[in-house]
Design a protein that fits this description.
The structure is a homodimer of 471-residue chains.
Chain A lengths: L1 H26 L8 H18 L5 H14 L5 H4 L6 H18 L2 H13 L3 H15 L6 H18 L13 H18 L6 H11 L6 H26 L8 H14 L4 H23 L3 H14 L5 H5 L2 H22 L2 H12 L5 H14 L7 H18 L4 H14 L9 H8 L5 H30 L1
Helix pairs in contact in A: 1-2, 2-3, 2-16, 3-16, 5-14, 5-16, 6-7, 6-12, 7-9, 7-11, 8-9, 8-21, 9-11, 9-20, 9-21, 10-19, 10-20, 11-22, 13-14, 16-19, 17-19, 18-19, 18-20, 19-20, 20-22
Amino acid sequence: MSSSFQGVSNLVYLRFGVIVFGLLVWFSPVPQGLSVEAWHLFAIFITAIVAVIVNAVPIFLSAILALSVSILTNTLTAKEGFSGFGEDWIFLIIIAFLIARGVIKSGLGKRIAFLIIKRFGKTSLGLAYSVIAADMFIAPAFPSNTARSGVLYPIVNALATDSNSKVEDGTRKRIGSFLMMCSMAGLTLSSTLWLTAMAANPAGAAIAQEFGVTITYQTWIMASCVPTITLFFLIPWIIYKVYPPEIKETPEAIEIANTALAKMGKLSKNEWIMSITFISMVALWIMSSSFGINKSAVALLGLAVLMLSNIFTLEDMKNEGGALETLIWFAILYTMSVYLNKFGFMGWLGGHIAYAVSDLSWLAVYVSLVLAYVFIHYFFVSQTAQMLALYGVFLEVGLTANVPGELIALMLLFATNFNAIITPQGSSANVIYIGSGYIKPGEVYKIGGIVTIVNTFVFLTLGTAWMMFIL
Amino acid sequence: MSSSFQGVSNLVYLRFGVIVFGLLVWFSPVPQGLSVEAWHLFAIFITAIVAVIVNAVPIFLSAILALSVSILTNTLTAKEGFSGFGEDWIFLIIIAFLIARGVIKSGLGKRIAFLIIKRFGKTSLGLAYSVIAADMFIAPAFPSNTARSGVLYPIVNALATDSNSKVEDGTRKRIGSFLMMCSMAGLTLSSTLWLTAMAANPAGAAIAQEFGVTITYQTWIMASCVPTITLFFLIPWIIYKVYPPEIKETPEAIEIANTALAKMGKLSKNEWIMSITFISMVALWIMSSSFGINKSAVALLGLAVLMLSNIFTLEDMKNEGGALETLIWFAILYTMSVYLNKFGFMGWLGGHIAYAVSDLSWLAVYVSLVLAYVFIHYFFVSQTAQMLALYGVFLEVGLTANVPGELIALMLLFATNFNAIITPQGSSANVIYIGSGYIKPGEVYKIGGIVTIVNTFVFLTLGTAWMMFIL
C-alpha cells in the first residue's frame, strides 16, 4: 500500500515538475528572431516531449494535452491544430496496420516464415538469416516494427524452446538468446529497407517535402537496398561472433517448419487472396510516383479486398483501438513539428547551429549530424518521437550547410530506424524480446551498441557512396 | 450448406448489380451545367449510398471503396479526399465517444439514471419520463444515440424484468414493451436537444457553414429546447395511450433504484471527477462561441483529465476500434458530400428542384422540404448517411426559395434526429431495443410512425414559430 502510494505521489511530483518546466520555457523572454507564437509552440512541444522522456505521462496523453493547450492558448488555430489528420500518408499507415492484421489472420505471415526456415534453417546462423529475411519480406505492408515483432517473436520463441534452449533452466544461451538478438537487430534493417515498414518513414518524407525535398517509394528503396542488404549479411555474422549460440547445428528447426507446414496444408483461399493483394499493393506502391498513383488509395483498396473476402472483418476492427491511439498522437506531434517549421522555429534554431559549424565542409557537417542523430537516441524512448522532434532541425542544418538534400533527408530517416537497438527502450519492438528473459537489458547496451555502430559505419561509408552515386 | 452458399451467391449478385448501377451512372451523358468531375463524384457517391441501402456492403467498406475509387480515378485529389479528416469537429465526436466510456466506467451514468428513477418512478408513466430525462441529461457528452442506448437499455431491461414483465413468459406488455418504446422514442428527442448528442449534428453544422449559415452551440440549444421539451412531456403520454402498459403503478422501480443506490454508496472519487469534468465541458461548450473557445480542444482536455485520473486508460483505448471505424466512414462520406457541393452538384440539383417549386411561397417550400426529408428516412438505414447524402441539396433548395437560412438549416438537422423511430432500422439505437424481443418490428412502424408524426407536427408548428421568434 505505502509503496504504491509512494509511487503515486512520486508521479504527482514528476508531473508537477514537468508543468513547472513548461511554464518556465513559456514565460522565458522570446529569443530575438522568433515570433511569440513560435516560442510558445516550442514551449508546449518541448514540454510534451520531456513529459514522455521522463515518463510522466504516456505519449498519447502528452499529445492530446499539447494540442488542447496549443488551441486554447491561441498558439495554433483549431484548423491548424487538426490539419495533420488530413494528411493522406497518415492513413497509409493506419490502413496498413489493419492490413497487417489480415496477413497474420490469414496465416500467410507464419507460412512465409516457416518456408524460409525450412530452406535455410539447418544451422543457428542460417536460422538467424532466415528469420530476418522473413521480416524483410513482410515488412512493406507492416508499417510498425512492433507489429512485426508480434509475428516474429512467437516463431523465434518456438524455435528456441524446441531446441531445448529455455530461460527457466538456464539454457537461454544455447540458441534462444542469439536468435532473439538477431531478430531484434533485424528489425532495425527491415524498417530501414522500405518506406512503408515503419510509421515514422512516410511521416519523415512528408516533413522533408515541407523543406522542398521529395522522397518517393522508388528513391527510398533504391537508396536503402545496398547498405541494408549488406548489413543483412553482416549483422547476424557479427552477433554470431560477439554473442555466440552454444549450438551451431539446428536440425530441429527444419523439423518444426516441416511439421508446421504439413499442418497448414496447401495454401488456403484466404492466403491466396492475401498474397495477391499483398504483392499487388507493394507493386503499386513502387510504381506510385512514376504513374501518379496515390499510395493511400491503394492501401484503402487493399483493405477493401480483404473485407470483401472476409479476411479482415468489422469484428476485427473493434479491437483496433490501438490504431486510433497511434493515429491521434502521431498526427498531433507531426502537426506541431510542421508548425514549428512554418512559424520559423526550425529555421531559426537550424540557422544558429549551422552558423556554429559554418567553417566545416558539408561532408563534415553531414557526418556530425548523422552521428549526433544516432546517439541522441540514448535519450528517446520512441523512434517516432525523436524523428518528429529533431528531424526538421537536423535537416535544416544540413541543407543550410549545402549537404545534398536527398542524401541528408534519407540518411536521417534511415538512422531513425537503424539506431533502434541502441538501448533496451530504444524501440517498442525491443520490449517483447527483452520481456522474454532470453536477453538481459545490459546485453542490449553492449551487443545493440555494436550493431548500432556497424549499422552507422556501413551507412556512412558504403551507403553514402551508393546514395551519392544513384541520387 | 446450400442455403449459406445461396446466401453468398445472392450477395455476389447484389454487389455485381451495384457495380453495374455505378458504371451506368458514371458513363451516362453528363447533364448540362455540370462538370465531368461533379458527375463522376456523384456517380461514386450515389453508388456508395445505394450499396449501403440495399445492404450489399457495410457502410465502412462502402466508404473506403468510394474514397479509393475517387482518388484512383482522379475525381478527387488525395489532398481533397482526405481533407475531411482534418476537421476539428470530427474529433469532437471521436473524443466524446471516449469520454462517454468514462461516464459508463465511473458508474456516474447509472447513478444519474437511478437517482431520477427514485424521484419519479412511482408509476409506469413517471418511470418512462424519468428514463427519458436521464437520457437528455447525459446526452451532451454522448455524441451517439447508439452509445446512449447502451447505457439506458440495461437499466430499462432491469426495470422490466424486476416488474415481472418478461418476453419468455408472454408478459412483455405488462410494462417492458411500454418502457422500451418510450426510451427508444426518447432517444429521438435527446439527440435533437444538443448539438453534441449525435454525430450527425456537428457534421451538419459544418456543412451549413459551407452554405454560409452559422450554427453555434448556443443557437442550437435555444432553438431546440422549446419544441423538444414540449415533446418530452407529450410523447410518453401519447405512447401511454396508444401502447399502454398493463400495470400503472411501479413501486418495484423505486425499490430497485434504492437498492442499487445503496449498493453504490456515496459518490466515489471517480464519479466526482467525472461529474465535474462533464459539467465543465458542457458549460465550456455552451460558452464556446461567445468566448471563442474551441469545442474540440475542450473535449481533448476533458479526456486528458479522465486519463490523468485513470478513469479512462490506454487499456480501455484498445477496445475502441469502433471509434476508428466511425471516424473513417464518417469523414469520407462527409468529405464527398462537401465536394459534391464545391463541384457545383448540390447547387445544380437544388436549382432544378427550386425552379420546379418557384411558384410556391417560402413557407410552402419549407414545409414540403421538411416533410419530404422526414419521410425519405423510410429508405435510409443510417441517419447520418441520409444527412450526408441529402442535407446539402435540401438546404440549397430552401435557401434558393428564400427560406430563412438558420431556420431551414436547424430544422433539417432536428429532423435528422426526430425521424429516427420511423422504421425499426431507422437508427442503430433502435436495434438493441427491438433485439430484446419486448418490441415487435411491426409495432415500430405503427407506434414509431405516430411518434414521428407528432414530432414533425410540433416542430413544424410550435417549433417553427419559436425559432422565427428567437433567430
